[in-house]
Structure formats: structure tokens, C-alpha cells
């Protein structure tokens, strides 16, 4: 059986030359820091990257929720630990859903 391609936001952004890491909490909500490499980027490309981070905010937080010095968790490991699952909507679009076990782990 052919395995479906999984979208991994941290890996995707790293391939684009963008590093994401946990920032300081503000207003009781954990923030994500977005760090760009030194090359020039057009404004619309930067906006697209920030939009991508906002769309995958919860998943990125789960991937970055590791001990200091450890690499981010992959989407495959989150699926294997049953912290997330893949759900399809009525149009057949796939997305990740955080399970109850994942919500408890994030607290």
C-alpha cells in the first residue's frame, strides 16, 4: 500500500530557509518566533510564510513542545503517539486534528 504524503510545517519552512522556535508567552498564549536566513525576500513571500505559520499554529506548537536542545518532533511521530489524526472534510480535503491525548500532552 502506498503511503500518503504528510505535510510537516516545520520541515517545509526549514526547506524554505525559515527557522521556527518557541518564543516568550504573551497574553497567556505561547508565541512562535519566525527567523529568516540572511537572503532578501519580497514582502508577499514573507506574508505567505507568516500566513502558513498561522494556519499551522497548533501543529507547530506540538512539534516544538520538546526538551531544550532536542529537534522538533515530526508529524509521523505525532501520528504514531496518537497526539494527532488525519481527518477528511466533506470536500475530501485532508487536515490534522488534535486528539484528546494530544490536548492533555500539550497542557
Please describe what this structure looks like.
- This protein is of the alpha+beta class and 107 residues long.
- The protein is 38% helix and 19% strand.
- It is built from five helices and four strands, in the order H-E-E-H-H-H-E-E-H.
- The strands form two sheets. Strands 1-2 form a two-stranded antiparallel sheet. Strands 3-4 form a two-stranded antiparallel sheet.
- A hairpin with a 5-residue loop joins strand 3 and strand 4 (94-98).
- The longest helix is centred in the middle third of the chain and has 13 residues, at 43-55.
- It starts with 8 loop residues before the first helix and ends with a helix.
Q: Write out the strand line-up for the largest beta sheet, numbering strands in chain order.
A: 1-2
Radius of gyration: 15 Å
Terminal CA distance reads 36 Å
Helix content: 25-40%
User: Approximately how much beta-strand content do the residues carry?
Assistant: 15-25%
Number of helices: 5
The string of secondary-structure elements, in order, is HEEHHHEEH
**Quantity of strands, as a count:** 4
Keywords:
single chain, alpha+beta, two-stranded antiparallel sheet
How is the secondary structure organized here?
Blueprint lengths: L8 H7 L2 E5 L9 E5 L6 H13 L1 H8 L10 H6 L3 E5 L5 E5 L1 H7 L1
Antiparallel strand pairs: 1-2, 3-4
Amino acid at each position: 500500500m502506498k503511503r500518503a504524503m504528510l505535510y510537516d510545517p516545520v520541515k517545509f519552512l526549514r526547506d524554505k530557509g525559515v527557522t521556527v522556535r518557541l518564543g516568550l508567552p504573551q497574553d497567556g498564549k505561547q508565541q512562535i518566533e519566525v527567523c529568516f536566513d540572511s537572503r532578501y525576500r519580497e514582502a508577499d513571500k514573507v506574508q505567505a510564510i507568516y500566513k502558513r505559520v498561522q494556519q499551522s499554529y497548533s501543529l507547530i506548537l506540538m512539534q516544538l513542545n520538546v526538551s531544550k536542545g532536542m529537534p522538533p518532533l515530526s508529524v509521523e511521530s505525532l501520528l504514531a503517539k496518537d497526539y494527532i489524526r488525519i481527518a477528511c472534510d466533506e470536500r475530501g480535503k485532508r487536515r490534522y486534528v488534535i486528539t484528546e491525548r494530544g490536548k492533555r500532552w500539550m497542557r
